[in-house]
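Please decode residue identities from the backbone states below.
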């Protein structure tokens, strides 16, 4: 029975089961007591009769025969009726019988009182502990309503009530997780909006200034052309900033579903650097691909290509004319690694632990091309697919970024 799954219900049933034989034992005790009382009454009554007859001179043999006789006859009934003793005689007029009656009633009253008291105490203890459980649960549920989830409902026992409390506690845990997620989302959106607004201030201010200059010198074609070009550059920077922030925000929010498939390493690398080779040629820099290129990588080619492209862009930004960026691939029993190495400026020791932070710009660089989102976006993309992005660098000795992905079993 499901009711007996509750520990308290089981104990209460055990209490009732024990109380019933206890009542039986008390009844046997009462019966023994009343039997002894009846025996004493008859002995006292026989003693009184024997004493009276002996004083009247009746022989002992006759008295003994009379006292031991068990045959009732009509003669005796008539005599008893003549002296007022019959079935219609009031018990109060029969002192010995009245004493037995009073003793029996007293014993029964004490027995029922004791049994009732035990039943009452046991029931009250059961109800008290159940009420205490309800009160405790009520207070904890009120804390849940107020947003305090530090205390959990009792779940240490079995039974329907504890199953209900476990369900309520599970619901509270889900609400807590939902509240935490909503809070993190609000904080995340707040930080994202703050980052975007902060980063947009500079280009927007520049746009306003360029517009005023053009407006004040409409007859100067050279000035209009120069600052129109600057306006275009600023707009591209704003577009790049917003697009990068939106991508990172979507990845962090978990709204990006990476569409993975098996791709060859050359296909991924060609997709990643297709638009960067022209820039490298214009800047007289070289991009070289070598290593174990026969490997297949299980990934989302578009997002992975963007991550690799961002890292190669960063290498181009920090490599002088005549520099070289090498992309290689190697395989271990558990990992496939893509290494992107340049012989550029390198990263200072105080900067290397911060390069994946959004909008981080080192004081050791005068570069103004980047917006500080390329590497954070690359890291988010790689980690979003279960990979690891790491970096090794020394100042003026070049930099190596390593993208590590688990091999598919």
């Amino acid at each position: 029975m499901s009711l007996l799954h509750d520990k308290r219900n089981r104990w209460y049933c055990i209490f009732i089961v024990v109380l019933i034989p206890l009542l039986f034992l008390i009844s046997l005790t009462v019966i023994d007591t009343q039997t002894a009382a009846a025996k004493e009454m008859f002995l006292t009554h026989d003693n009184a009769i024997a004493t009276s007859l002996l004083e009247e001179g009746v022989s002992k043999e006759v008295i003994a025969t009379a006292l031991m006789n068990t045959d009732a006859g009509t003669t005796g009934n008539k005599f008893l009726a003549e002296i007022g003793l019959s079935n219609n005689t009031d018990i109060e007029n029969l002192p010995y019988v009245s004493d037995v009656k009073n003793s029996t009633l007293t014993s029964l009253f004490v027995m029922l009182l004791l049994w009732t008291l035990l039943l009452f105490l046991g029931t009250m203890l059961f109800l008290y502990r159940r009420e205490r459980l309800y009160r405790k649960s009520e207070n904890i549920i009120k804390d849940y309503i107020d947003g305090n989830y530090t205390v959990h409902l009792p779940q240490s026992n079995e039974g329907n009530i504890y199953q209900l409390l476990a369900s309520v506690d599970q619901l509270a845990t889900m609400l807590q997780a939902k509240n935490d997620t909503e809070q993190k989302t609000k904080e995340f959106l707040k930080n994202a909006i703050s980052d975007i607004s902060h980063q947009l201030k500079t280009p927007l201010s520049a746009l306003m200034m360029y517009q005023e200059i053009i407006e004040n010198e409409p007859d100067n074609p050279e000035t209009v052309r120069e600052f129109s070009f600057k306006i275009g550059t600023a707009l591209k920077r704003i577009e790049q900033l917003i697009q990068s922030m939106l991508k990172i925000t979507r990845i962090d929010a978990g709204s990006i579903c990476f569409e993975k498939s098996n791709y060859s390493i050359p296909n991924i690398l060609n997709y990643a650097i297709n638009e960067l080779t022209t820039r490298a040629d214009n800047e007289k820099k070289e991009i070289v691909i070598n290593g174990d290129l026969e490997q297949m990588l299980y990934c989302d080619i578009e997002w992975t290509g963007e991550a690799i492209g961002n890292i190669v862009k960063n290498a181009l930004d920090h490599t002088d004319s005549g520099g070289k960026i090498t992309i290689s691939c190697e395989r271990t029993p558990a990992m496939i690694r893509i290494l992107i190495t340049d012989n550029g400026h390198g990263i200072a020791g105080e900067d290397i632990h911060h390069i994946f932070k959004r909008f981080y710009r080192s004081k050791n660089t005068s570069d103004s091309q980047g917006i500080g989102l390329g590497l954070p976006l690359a890291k988010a993309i790689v980690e979003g697919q279960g990979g690891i992005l790491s970096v090794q660098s020394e100042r003026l000795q070049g930099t190596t970024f390593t993208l590590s992905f688990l091999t598919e079993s």
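Observation: The chain has a mean pLDDT of 80.
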